[in-house]
Predict the structure.
Amino acid sequence: MTKISSKQLGETRKLQMTGGSTYILSIPKRWIIQNQLKKGSALLIREEEDGSLSILSPELRRMDKMEEVFIKVSPNEESNAVIRKVVSAYLVGYNVITVMAEKNQNLSLKQRNAIKNFARHLLVGTEIVTDAPAEVTLQVLLSYPELSVQSALRRMCVITSSMHKDVITALKELNQQLAKSVITTDNEVDRFNLYIIRQLKTAIQNSRIIKEIGLSNARDCLGYRLVTKSVERTADHATSIAENVLPLKKPLNAATFKRIEKMSSIAVSMFENSIESLFKQDFNLAESLIEKAKEVASLEKEALASFQKIESEGIANLRLIIESIRRTAEYATDIAEIVLNLTIDSIIEQ
């Protein structure tokens, strides 16, 4: 049996009165020392939605709203390295990110353009508020309630599902323009992926934010982080299929395409239902999806066998295409298993 610590249970302290009208409550000395407080330290007392009170130390108050961060870079530093620093600051939760050249120098034009393009295309709710030779400042303007984690994830999933459907159409018609469109659309999924990670990281640091982003507890944060990763990888496989459609010169014969189309249809349906099981908190729906992966694996074997009758040109691309379809089904299974973990309480008799 797991032993519950006194810290987890909390401490009972009696409410006292001083001066005939002021109520006071003593605070554990351990907490005072841990937060490096002293007589006269300012604390924030906040009433939560459930009627409970939260007491925040100065450090926790700073975490409540991350301050501005300054990132100094060399003008000779690679643009990709600068972007990685910006992403790290964004994901940690900073609301104002200033990138500046060190030693009173100027950023290179390539660095400035890379930062601005990245912010515009991949950072949800972020605006460029300063664009000067020596520095670029980004500010995150979107607050938590404006776009919840569930809303962002749902958009991310709708885009991912559409990518997979479009790329199968591109394969059928050898439509290179549509295939290239799928590749470009992957940026939209990446935008929401970064936004969700930022929200979840911030919520883990400050439990009050968990409800503001639309979740219930820290366990949900972990579950949604794993789901988001699987959705992002599913979109990557749609992109991979598109990249393997581009080199193909001849349309597939009807029988081969039908096998691939059927396999894709099942995989995408599994993906959509796995996400629906998450939003509906439906244990049974998630459970029903796991066995479906076997059907996709069986269709993959049939497709691979049929390739033996096709000319060698394009075979490697087709193999990679069906591998990505199988991986899509496997990611759907991963999501379903996460849902099982999140909803297990619904089938346990109390």
